[in-house]
User: What shape does this take?
Amino acid sequence: MFRIRFKKWYPYLLLSPALFVLSALFLGGVVLGLSQSLGYFPILGLEEPTFSYYIEVWSSSEFFHSLIFSLFIAFTSSVLTVIIGVFFAYQLVKMRGKNKIINFLYKLPIIVPHIIASLMVFLMLTQSGILSRIFFQLGLIEEISSFPRLIFDKFGIGIIAAYLWKQIPFVILVVYTVLKHINNSFEAAAKNLGASSAQVFREIYLPLAAPSIGSAFIIIFAFSLGAFEIPYLLGPTYPQTLSVLAYKNYISLDLTQRPYTMVIAMTLTMITVILIIIYRKILSLVSRYHV
Assistant: This one.
């Protein structure tokens, strides 16, 4: 019994030094951010914790608009990413490894840095970019300046486009790994009973892949909500995402703005934790349903 338990915990013991350092750094940052968001900043003479910074930030119109803008971009990009990613993952399953080139190419955007992805989207979608010039040459627009504004726009289309290009391959990879291990006999039995391809996907593949789809959605939603590079490079001046708003306050020469920055950072942390809790609840319900 002792040997079995030792084998179970042995990998964690090997990882414990690295996990300790990472946990200390992460928890240390969270504790520091939380204390500063409560107004505990001894270097400025602030030693009395208070919720006044939270009240002031949460009641401001700038924060409200940034929160709505951030949630809109994160939710829209995550939903579109999951829909498109699951569709292509299923198509790859149907191919069953017949085209190795496609299996290689769809993974390439994963390794491209977000800054490079931002530059590519900018060159493609800006009003003087590649796409507008193609439209002009085809006669679809009268002049290049009449091309719709897709970068620095209030709807964050450029940001969403960059997220889609980067995150769709991630969803494909996650979901495809699950779908390709589903027993083919399920599909064969369903088709023998008269099920169509759409019914097979909806009733067999989709429920079995639901936990992985949910995991991918939570991961990309949390990332999109807190990401900085793409919204900073492609986003409008107003409203800004919460991450950009926090950065703007953080680099201010006025150190009294630091607690406001930490309030925004802690707000993002709270939203992420809530999402994880919701996901775990949904996952437990799904597991009970299947059992």
About this structure: The chain is about 75% helix and 0% strand. Residues 101 and 107 are 10 Å apart (CA to CA).
